[in-house]
Amino acid sequence: MARDIFISYSQPDRDCAFELVSRLEGQGIECWIAPRDIAPSADWAAEIMDAISAARAMILVFSANSNQSPQVRREVERAVHKQLSILPFRIEDVLPSKSLEFFLSTQHWMDAFPPPREPHYARLCAYLKTQLADTTRLTSEAQRAAESGLQPILAGSAGAATGVHVFDSAQLQHIERELAGYIGPVARHLVKTAALHCAAVDDLVGRLAGELDSDSERREFTQRCQAVPPPARR
After folding, report:
1. Sign (positive/negative) of CA torsion 167, 225, 194, 7?
2. Distances from the Cα of 95 to the Cαs of 62, 85, 100, in angstroms?
3. 102, 74 in Cβ contact below 8 A?
4. Are 175 and 205 in contact (CB under 8 A)?
5. Partners of 60 in beta bridges
6. Which of 130, 8, 126, 183 is nearest to 78 (CA)?
7. Is 110 within 8 Å of 88 (Cβ atoms)?
């Protein structure tokens, strides 16, 4: 059964993760969490991968434990591959390891410390209810944009969504190819995420250039993207 939110956590943080699920589901937000939602005879890995693919967002209960967990890293990698929105819910004042930072550097974070956690749970519930409602409201608009041959990007920031901004698919594909030449397949995720916050191609290119390590690479990437094809006429 598809659920709105996939909960990723490390076993030592189990109590916090299930407490969080209780608060979210009490507000009508459906969650998927292991092992509760894995059938006894099911393939554990397959169930987790399917749940991530079906979810609308992932909440990562982030701590020193999850920071070092290979299982959590695999779940985050899968979520990025599926272009799933990830919200790290940071229950300890810990910086992400290099392997997780690679995937989480463009994500919005929510701090859930110091205790008590109840106010943080309430804030997360309010945020998710707004985001899920906005996504539902905008889905039909995005579908109409897709039917016109353009790629829809839901515009907005970590706050409320503001509407649908449409980038031409050829433009985005060109930018993605150029960025992938520097950082590999994760470019697809970064382009999609950055486009949520940009109103024009120049803004998008400038934001993505910041993902590169050196000034020379940033200049070269920007120049290459200046050859972006013009938007297709409707």
Report:
1. positive
2. 9, 20, 10
3. no
4. yes
5. 8, 88
6. 8
7. yes
* Cβ atoms 127, 134 nearer than 8 A: no
- Work out whether the CA dihedral 177, 181, 182, 185 comes out positive or negative: positive
Query: What are the tens digits of pLDDT across the range 9-65?
Result: 999 999 999 999 999 999 999 999 999 999 888 888 889 999 998 999 999 999 999
**Which run of H or of E encompasses 22?**
helix 14-26
CB 142 within 8 A of CB 158: no
Using alpha carbons, select from 172, 168, 179, 175 the residue that is nearest to residue 145.
168
Determine how β-strand 31-32 pairs with β-strand 5-8. Answer: parallel
Instruction: Using the predicted structure, report yes or no on whether residue 103 has a pLDDT greater than 60.
Output: yes
